[in-house]
Amino acid sequence: xxxxxxxxxxxxxxxxxxxxxxxxxxxxxxxxxxxxxxxxxxxxxxxxxxxxxxxxxxxxxxxxxxxxxxxxxxxxxxxxxxxxxxxxxxxxxxxxxxxxxxxxxxxxxxxxxxxxxxxxxxxxxxxxxxxxxxxxxxxxxxxxxxxxxxxxxxxxxxxxxx
Length: 162
Prior knowledge:
Blueprint: H1 2-5, H2 10-26, H3 36-49, E1 52-53, E2 63-64, E3 70-77, E4 90-91, E5 100-106, E6 112-119, H4 120-126, E7 128-130, E8 135-137, E9 151-152, H5 154-161
Parallel strand pairs: 3-5
Antiparallel strand pairs: 1-2, 2-3, 4-8, 5-6, 6-9, 7-8
Helix pairs in contact: 3-5
């Protein structure tokens, strides 16, 4: 597919991008225009576990389950050129917040590499407070999966994507 894309003009590529984003919005996969990776992560977790997505205005969690647990959902594309696994800022951590941090790591082509449910206490220990933004910085390194209570849910998300 990439070979064919290289022959398209810039306006044609941008038109294709707009049409793809509109189709993903129609399918209820994305909810925003600026974070398709995060939106896809929310869609997949909610589909895999039958969670209910929170309104876009919620700053401390993205979904809830039938037991009332709250989930902060993060997605990260691990690029070939930049393999960083730093998640976007985790805001309002000191407030009511969330019970679980859920993370899915994608490769460049949105194939699922790994996914996990991370208990709040693991985030508290491993996260780094950033005073300037009043948020936590969290790196989803391979060692996170070894922490007590972390659940590997890669298979669940791969099924939801299929």
